[in-house]
Design brief:
Shape: globular
Largest sheet: 6 strands, antiparallel
Bound molecules: protoporphyrin IX containing FE
Radius of gyration: 19 Å
Order of helices and strands: EHEHEEEHEHEHHHEEEHEEH
Distance between the termini: 24 Å
Number of helices: 9
Structural class: alpha+beta
Oligomer: single chain
C-alpha cells in the first residue's frame, strides 16, 4: 500500500503545519463542478513538484474532502463512514460543527515552504473555493502543548501507525483515512492559576518528566483517562494525532488533528471527553480549553486522485 496513501497521514511529526479549510464561494454549475474536480485531482502533482524543489523540507500535503462536498460534487462511491461533524452540547460543554468543504493539511520542517506550496494550491482552487480559515501550527519546545505538557507521547508507533490510520482492505478506499480537525482555544491565564499538581491531575501525567500516572492515581476527569478508552468489544479505540499548537495576538491553543481507519474512533473518544461524570465533570482539559471549530473529512488514497484525474 506504500504509494497508495497520502504520506503526511502517518509521517513523523513536523515542525510546522498549515491547516487550511476552504468553502465554495457560490453555487456551482455543472461545468464549474467539473473544473473543481479536475483542480482537486491535480493537487497531489503540485505537491510532488515542490517536494522535488525542496527535498530536505520533508514536505507533506493531506487533502481531505467533507461529506457535504462529496455529495455536492456527486462523487461516486462515497466512503461509508464519511458524515458531517457532530456538534456536542451538554450542561458543561459546547462543541460546534463547522464542516468546511476541503482540507489542505500541509506540513514540513519549513514554514516558508509550507506557505509557498499553499499559495500554489490556493491559486489553483481560487475563485471556486475561498479560504474559511488558515492556521499556522508550530512545534513548541520539546513537542509540548502550550499548557506545557508533551503532546503525542501515546501516539501509535512504527507499523502500528498505518494499522490505526489507514483503511486496509476496501475496493475503493484502501489507503484512505478519516480525519477530524478541531481548533481549541486555551484560557492560559486560567491554566496558569492552577498549581503544577492540579495541572498534572488534569492530564493524568507528570509535567516536566512526562510520566503517566497509574490508573489508581488518575481522576475520572483526567484527559488521559477520558481519551484512552475501549469499545464494546473491549478493544482499544485508537487514532493517530497530528496536532500542533498555534498562537497569535487574538488566541492561543491547539489545532487538533487526528487520522483513523474507522470513522467512529474519534467520535467515541470525543464523546468520552465530553460526558459528565457523577460529579458533573467532563474531561478536565475542557475547563481551560474551548473547541471553536469542528470538521470531518476523508483523505483518499493517491490512486483515488489518479482515477479522478482520468475521469474528470
Ligand atoms: C485542548 C485540546 C487537547 C489537548 C491540549 C490535548 C493534549 C494531550 C496531551 C498533553 C496528552 C498526553 C500525552 C500524549 O499521549 O499525547 C494527550 C493524550 C491523548 N489525547 Fe489529547 N488533547 C486535546 C484534545 C484531544 C481530543 C479532542 C482527542 C480525541 C477526540 C484527544 C485524544 C487523545 C488521546 C487518544 C491521547 C492518548 C491517551 C493515552 O493513551 O494515554 N485529545 N492529549
Amino acid at each position: 500500500m506504500d504509494d497508495e496513501y497520502q504520506q503526511g497521514i502517518i509521517g513523523a511529526p513536523s515542525k510546522h503545519a498549515l491547516f487550511i479549510t476552504l468553502n465554495r464561494d457560490q453555487l456551482l454549475n455543472s461545468r464549474q463542478k467539473q473544473t473543481l474536480l479536475r483542480h482537486i485531482a491535480k493537487l497531489p502533482s503540485l505537491l510532488q513538484e515542490q517536494q522535488q524543489v525542496y527535498p530536505d523540507a520533508q514536505l507533506y500535503l493531506n487533502i481531505g474532502l467533507s461529506s457535504g462536498l462529496w455529495d455536492y460534487l456527486e462523487i461516486q462511491p462515497k466512503p461509508a463512514g464519511l458524515r458531517p461533524f457532530k456538534a456536542i452540547t451538554n450542561k458543561k460543554v459546547t462543541m460546534p460543527a463547522s464542516d468546511a468543504d476541503l482540507l489542505l493539511h500541509l506540513r514540513s520542517n519549513r514554514h516558508d515552504v509550507n506557505y509557498h506550496l499553499s499559495q500554489i494550491l490556493l491559486s489553483t482552487l481560487f475563485p471556486i473555493l475561498k479560504i474559511d480559515e488558515m492556521v499556522h501550527g508550530f512545534s513548541y519546545l520539546d513537542s509540548r502543548d502550550l499548557t506545557g505538557f508533551v503532546d503525542g507521547t501515546e501516539n501509535p508507533e512504527g507499523e502500528h501507525r498505518r494499522e490505526v490510520a489507514l483503511i486496509n482492505k476496501d475496493k475503493h478506499f484502501a489507503g484512505g483515512s478519516y480525519v477530524h480537525i478541531q481548533k481549541y482555544q486555551h484560557n492560559l491565564a486560567r491554566w496558569q492559576q492552577l498549581s503544577v499538581e492540579q495541572q498534572e491531575c488534569s492530564y493524568g501525567r507528570s509535567k516536566a518528566a512526562n510520566i503517566e500516572f497509574s490508573s489508581s492515581n488518575k481522576s475520572s476527569s483526567a484527559h488521559t483517562a477520558r481519551s484512552a478508552i475501549k469499545n464494546n468489544q473491549q478493544q482499544s479505540v485508537e487514532i493517530l494525532r497530528q496536532s500542533l499548537p498555534f498562537a497569535d495576538q487574538h488566541s492561543q491553543g491547539l489545532m487538533f488533528a487526528s487520522y483513523a481507519a474507522q470513522a467512529d474512533s474519534f467520535d467515541l473518544i470525543l464523546a468520552s471527553m465530553c460526558a459528565l461524570d457523577k460529579h458533573g465533570d467532563s474531561d478536565a482539559i475542557l475547563n481551560v480549553s474551548k473547541a471553536v471549530s469542528g470538521h470531518a473529512f476523508f483523505t483518499p488514497s493517491a490512486s483515488w486522485f489518479s482515477a479522478l484525474m482520468e475521469s474528470s
